[in-house]
Request: fold
Amino acid sequence: MSDTVPAGPAPKIDVVSSTSAVETARIAARGCDPVLQIGSRVEVVDRVETSWRKRMAGRDFTGLDIAEGEGVDVVADLCWPFERLDQAVDGRRFGLILCQHVLEHVRRPFEAAENVARLLAPAGTLYVAVPWVQAFHGYPDDFWRFSFRGLLELFPDLEPVDMYYSATGSGLDAAYKITVDGRIDVARTPFEIEGRLFETVYDQQDNIAMLRRQEQQPKLPIARRYLPALFVNLVFERR
Reply:
C-alpha cells in the first residue's frame, strides 16, 4: 500500500488587471468610519472629483497634514511622540486610514509607520501607497522609495490583505496584481508582475543597433521623460 498522497489540482494563477479608480473604490467600501486621511492638504493632484474627501462625502472624515491648508482638519507630524499625536486627534482610533504618497517624504518612516498603526482601530483597514519608481519631488523633501517587502517591514503587526502596482494611485491608470485561486499572493506579486509586465528585454542585435544609433546621433536623448512612475499599494487589516 502506498503512502503517497495524491496531488491536488494545480493552483490557478492569474495576472489581474484593474484600474486604480476601481481599487481605491474597493478600499473606500471596505473601511469603516471614522476615516483618517494622512497627507490631506489639497495639491494640484487632489483637485479632482475622485479625491478622498469628495469620494467620502457624508462620512466621519478627518484630514491630517504636517502643514495648514485646504483639506486639513488636524496639523500634526507623523514622527511626533505618539502621546502628542494622539492628543492632536483627540484620542480617536480610525476604522480606515489612508496614507497615500506620504511616507517617502517622512524622515523617519519606521517611527511614522508605528504611529499610524497605533491610530488604527481594532479590525480597522489601512491603505498605504508609496513610490517604487518616481522622479525626485520635494513636498517639502523626498527621502525614500519602497518595495512591497519594505512596506511589510514597516507594518509587521498588521495583516496584508490586498496589493497592487499602479502608475498614480487615484486615476484611471492600470493596476496589476497576482492572485492564486482567487486570493492575493503577497509573495508572488512583486516578482511575477515585474517579470511579466514591466521588463523590456532587447536581444543582443537590437541592443547593439540602439547603441550604434546613439554613436551616430550623440544628442539623441535616452528617455523622453526623466523617470516613469510606478507605485506600490498595500491594504492592511488589524485582525
Residues 204-216 form the longest helix (13 residues). The domain at 17-173+224-237 is CATH 3.40.50.150 (Rossmann fold). The chain has seven helices and ten strands. The chain has one domain: 17-173+224-237.
